[in-house]
Amino acid sequence: MAVAAAAKKFRAPRIAIAGATGAVGHDLLRILTERGFPVGSLKLLASARSAGKTLDFRGETLTIEELTEDSFKDVDIALFSAGGAQSKRFAPAAVDAGALVIDNSSAFRMTDGVPLVVPEVNPDAAFEHKGIIANPNCSTILMNVAVWPIHTKVSPVSRCVVSTYQAASGAGAAAMAELEQQARDWVDGKEKVTQDIFGRQYIWNLFSHNAPVDLETGYNEEETKMVVETKKIFNDPDFRTAVTCVRVPVLRAHCEAVNLAFDEDVPDLEAKARAAFADAPGVRIVDDREANAFPEPLLASNQDDILVGRIRKDPSVRSGSALEFFLAGDQVRKGAATNAVQIAELFLER
Amino acid sequence: MAVAAAAKKFRAPRIAIAGATGAVGHDLLRILTERGFPVGSLKLLASARSAGKTLDFRGETLTIEELTEDSFKDVDIALFSAGGAQSKRFAPAAVDAGALVIDNSSAFRMTDGVPLVVPEVNPDAAFEHKGIIANPNCSTILMNVAVWPIHTKVSPVSRCVVSTYQAASGAGAAAMAELEQQARDWVDGKEKVTQDIFGRQYIWNLFSHNAPVDLETGYNEEETKMVVETKKIFNDPDFRTAVTCVRVPVLRAHCEAVNLAFDEDVPDLEAKARAAFADAPGVRIVDDREANAFPEPLLASNQDDILVGRIRKDPSVRSGSALEFFLAGDQVRKGAATNAVQIAELFLER
Fold it and tell me: How far apart are CA B118 and CA B136, in angstroms?
């Protein structure tokens, strides 16, 4: 069955969305519409709590059903975005029912036999699936879309050092709402702002990413995802990344300061990097030194392109060369929903 | 005169503050009080606009005078924090009048014969002044206080890669007020928030540092300051820094993600770094992996210590070794006012 499923392409696939009420679920509906995805039928699935509620899709009112093991009869593609626990529990049932699962959680990303796909980087990997394809971590996707053209068209990257500036959206819709509530609390002069989710004041503050930290290495899970997922997506177990993940009080787009080192001294490095970015799918250059106009979260919000700017040669290397740039990308869209829909598009008959 | 001035120490110096009404001026008054600095007399200077206003200092009400070339008679130490143009215009007059100038602006930082001093790093340099001592850029100070103990006690740093997360305060009190106003505007549902200073929405956003960008290199002036000032402070023209400076919607403390590479493979790197930080003046370790508790702007605000955490070995290097950490420091205090007062303290008779 696995091989047959891998080969299968659809004219108008019957879609299910598991986790339809979350931030990513919401955007999946929008993006299917925006991109004119040929949805044969659409089933919205969520927890029992949300079952019975309705959502509009292309002018039709759809009733949300409870996500169960029996949800996937007559489904061709199941887009999962209900968290890792739900994916682990229900994705196998979806595969057994014959659906192709595109999973936005981290549950299966590093599992052997599960392709981890950024369509701008490794679209062919998608076709080696055994029923499940994993959507990478949001920060990984944004970085990979921008680093891949440099790594393949300019010079092989020997080492990548990244610092992230991550939005609240990565922690879900309720986290975004808490950050907004903190603004209202602060304006109201409340002594202590609402902090049920992050356990700290987030407005006027920033903090190391809230993922658990490995007690031995000091790396948090978000950082480790970026390191190991990039190796898998680039199909290069020796690709080297050092990363610091930080949450900043921004609502829905992530930024990353990226430093790429090369073993060779690349002549005209900056010009070559600009040319590679200009040609790269999913990348838009925003880089006006005179106007001090560069990528910003608000410019990237509700966009699918990754914005790159501050493209410049790093003056600090002793040998070889290095490139610096700054990117911004919508974490909910390209970092999650858009990437998942792009993977689904790979399986459309054209 | 220069040599005599350099040697001179004071029991209770007569102080002038040029720029008494700014964010740093305000903190200079607080810090002189908090540290029990033996102020012989205090003269508050500002623009004509502020002359005649009053400020309290140790229970006394002082009237602000207009900053002119004649302001510095009977002044031993003049603390300048009125911007580069005012420093260029009035610091020479202060020196001619016999005052030792400690200048918080960038006007003289890279001038030959003007020491650039971080007391935890190069206190002795202060005594080589010719009337003016420069206070480094805020981001430089925070980085230098933390990097110096590693560079000198652990292993010589071959390359330093930094990404900053800078607060509004670096752009002055009015910039902080605009950011706060934007929160009120957003809560009020205004379509466009107040953006007279930064020319963009800052709340829920971040942007490349607003300093002018060199059209050739792509480095902005804030980044270049960190690169060149560090060489001067460390007295090492070959110290190599690559840096990306970013403004985040935080009010008054800066953060920096720092990556230090070493030529040698340092055994027990993390433990050695922790020991060096623990011994370093002006540094406090905040690094609880289990509780996910690390440096944050709000924890560093109104503190003089630089908080360091996320101390860990960088897994990405091919040869040698590298250390990563994250710091937070109050930009107005240690990044400006406290550092200036600490320089003044070097000139106290004990």
Answer: 7
Q: Is the dihedral of CA A328, A331, A335, A337 positive or negative?
A: negative
Residue A336 resides in a domain: no
> Do residues B85 and B150 share a domain?
no
The domain in which residue A12 lies consists of 2-135
Answer for the pair A24, A336: CB distance below 8 angstroms, yes or no. yes
Give the tens place of pLDDT for each residue, A91-146: 999 999 999 999 999 999 999 999 999 999 999 999 999 999 999 999 999 999 99
Q: Is B254 a catalytic residue?
A: yes
Picking from A344, A335, A110, A333, the residue whose alpha carbon sits closest to that of residue A228 is A110
In a domain, A340, yes or no: no
Q: How far apart are CA B308 and CA B295, in angstroms?
A: 6
Same domain, B175 and B308: yes
User: A121 and A63, same structural domain?
Assistant: yes
Q: Do B314 and A242 touch (CB under 8 A)?
A: yes
| Cα A170 to Cα B93: distance, rounded to the nearest angstrom | 55
How far, CA to CA in Å, does B193 sit from each of B178, B190, B196, B197, B204? 9, 6, 9, 12, 11
A208/B326 touch (CB, cutoff 8 Å), yes or no: yes
Does residue A184 lie within any of the structural domains? yes
Q: Which helix (H) or strand (E) holds A165?
A: strand A157-165
Q: How many domains does chain B have?
A: 2
Rounded Cα distance, A212 and A12, in Å: 41
- Assign residue B264 the CATH number of its domain: 3.30.360.10
Q: Is residue B119 part of a domain?
A: yes
Verify that A173 and A283 share a domain, yes or no: yes
A13 in contact with B, Cβ within 8 Å: no
Amino acid at B16: A
Domain end (from A135, A153, A179): A135
Mutate to test the interface with A, among B161, B185, B201, B290 (most CBs of A within 10 A): B161
pLDDT tens string A167-206: 999 898 899 999 999 999 999 999 999 999 999 999 999 9
Chain B residues with CB-CB distance to A292 below 8 A: 208, 210, 212-213, 220
**DSSP characters over A298-312:** HHHTT-SSEEEEEEE
What string of DSSP letters covers B141-186? Answer: HHHHHHHHHHHHHT--EEEEEEEEEB-GGGG-HHHHHHHHHHHHHH
Residue B15 and residue B118 in one domain: yes
From A115, A135, A155, give the residue that closes a domain: A135
- Asked if the ipTM is above 0.90, the reply is yes
Nearest CA in chain A to B310: A218
Residue B164: Cβ-neighbour burial (10 angstroms; 0-12, 13-18, 19+)? buried
Give yes or no: residues A267 and A306 share one domain.
Answer: yes
Return the half-sphere exposure (C-beta side, CA atoms, 13 A cut-off) of residue B149: 20
Residue B156 sits at the chain A interface (C-beta within 8 Å): no
